[in-house]
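Please decode residue identities from the backbone states below.
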């Protein structure tokens, strides 16, 4: 049903009867059998029980013996071999005759599918592994090199060298000549920008820390100096009174008491100002705001200085827009303290005969107050440090009163009122200090 009938065993049996003797082909029959096999393009091999070839008839190149498993495979899977094979076992001699007949068609080519599949998978796997290795090396170089650069950055930043976030050599690696980031670093564009920003902030913080440290030292030096002078006076009078060596008249004792009180008042004021600067900084001072009419408020403050008999060598002037009223939201107590500091500063740090002019006005949504003098003026360094706590200008005389905190307090009060202070000055020509505050309402004519 599934194929043709195998006539080989019957043919072998007939040949054994016709040409066989003791299980082999007789010598006189070799020529005839060889002729018949040649006409059929076949050959016969006779093997013993061990598979050794005892006789071969016809054109055969096989010399090696047959293995038992090979014989079973030839019988079970004839399609795997290049010739059609038939077997006949001669029981009388114990020999097996094998007839090999060439198959029709092209020569047989063994094509084991599993072997080809395995070979294909091995080759494919090798190629994939090689590509993966190359891809990994490329990505390692691409993503690893920037990480090594970041490690150097961290090391420099750990050493506090914030200005060296990128050395000149690193900058050439990361950026092109046109300033654009190279392709291999483009993935880390945000990281590089973040490094720059972080380094800039840390450098700014370091500068600020150094500045604050310097300022703190200046504060301590200044406060120590300002406290030492009145303390020396109080200590000296105390020793004189304690010694009992001298007899003091009533007026002398009153004069000594007055001096001690004044020096004590100065020290208390100094400490109060010192404490106030920190309270303003930390917003610990209560600021209850109310509507303040600017022209009248400033006029009264200036009038108080005009009527102060202790200030006889300085002239005051007040200018305002009479037809307009400016209302601001302010705390009267601290607003007056700010103006007092500005005006007092102009009085203390200018020579006799100076004219101090106070003006008010408005511009847009802001009201402004100017304190102008035609006195000594300030240099650039003094203006830069004018509002630093405990800073005194280079043209300040040693006899000048004050703790060096007045302008710092004035700026802090202006900031607490959502305002700002601006200063312009030229040496020998005078100074203008302008305070700007938001208007509570639009000015009305």
């Amino acid at each position: 049903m599934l194929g043709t009938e195998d006539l080989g065993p019957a043919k072998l049996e007939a040949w054994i009867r016709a040409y066989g003797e003791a299980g082999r082909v007789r010598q006189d029959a070799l020529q005839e059998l060889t002729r018949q096999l040649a006409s059929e393009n076949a050959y016969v091999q006779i093997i013993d029980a061990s598979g050794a070839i005892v006789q071969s008839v016809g054109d055969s190149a096989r010399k090696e013996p047959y293995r038992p498993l090979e014989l079973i495979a030839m019988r079970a899977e004839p399609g795997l071999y290049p010739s059609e094979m038939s077997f006949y076992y001669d029981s009388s001699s114990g020999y097996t005759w094998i007839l090999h007949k060439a198959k029709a068609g092209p020569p047989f080519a063994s094509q084991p599918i599993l072997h080809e599949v395995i070979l294909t998978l091995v080759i494919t796997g090798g190629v994939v592994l090689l590509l993966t290795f190359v891809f990994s090396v490329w990505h390692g170089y691409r993503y690893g090199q920037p990480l090594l650069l970041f490690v150097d950055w961290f090391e420099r930043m750990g050493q506090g060298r914030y200005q060296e976030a990128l050395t000149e050599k690193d900058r050439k690696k990361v950026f092109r000549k046109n300033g654009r980031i190279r392709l291999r670093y483009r993935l880390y564009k945000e990281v590089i920008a973040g490094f720059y920003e972080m380094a800039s902030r840390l450098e700014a913080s370091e500068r600020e820390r150094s500045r604050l440290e310097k300022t703190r030292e200046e504060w301590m030096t200044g406060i120590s100096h300002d406290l030492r002078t009145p303390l020396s006076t109080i200590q000296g009078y105390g020793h004189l009174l304690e010694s009992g060596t001298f007899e003091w008249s009533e007026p002398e004792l009153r004069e000594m008491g007055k001096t001690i009180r004044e020096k004590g008042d100065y020290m208390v004021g100094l400490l109060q100002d010192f404490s106030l600067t920190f309270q303003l900084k930390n917003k610990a001072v209560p600021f209850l705001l109310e509507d303040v009419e600017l022209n009248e408020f400033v006029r009264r403050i200036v009038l108080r200085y005009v009527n102060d008999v202790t200030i006889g060598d300085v002239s005051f002037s007040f200018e305002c827009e009479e037809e307009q009223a400016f209302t601001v939201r302010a705390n009267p107590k601290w607003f007056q303290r700010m103006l007092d500091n500005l005006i007092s500063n102009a009085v203390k740090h200018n020579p006799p005969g100076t004219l101090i002019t106070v003006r008010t006005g408005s511009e847009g949504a802001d009201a402004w107050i100017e304190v102008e003098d035609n006195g000594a003026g300030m240099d650039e360094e003094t203006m830069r440090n004018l509002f630093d706590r405990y800073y005194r200008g280079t043209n300040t005389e040693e006899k000048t009163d004050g703790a060096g905190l007045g302008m710092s307090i004035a700026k802090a009060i202006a900031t607490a009122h959502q305002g700002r202070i601006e200063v312009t000055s030229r040496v020998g020509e005078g100074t203008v200090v302008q305070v700007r505050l938001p208007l509570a309402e639009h000015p009305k004519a």
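Observation: The longest strand covers residues 355-363.
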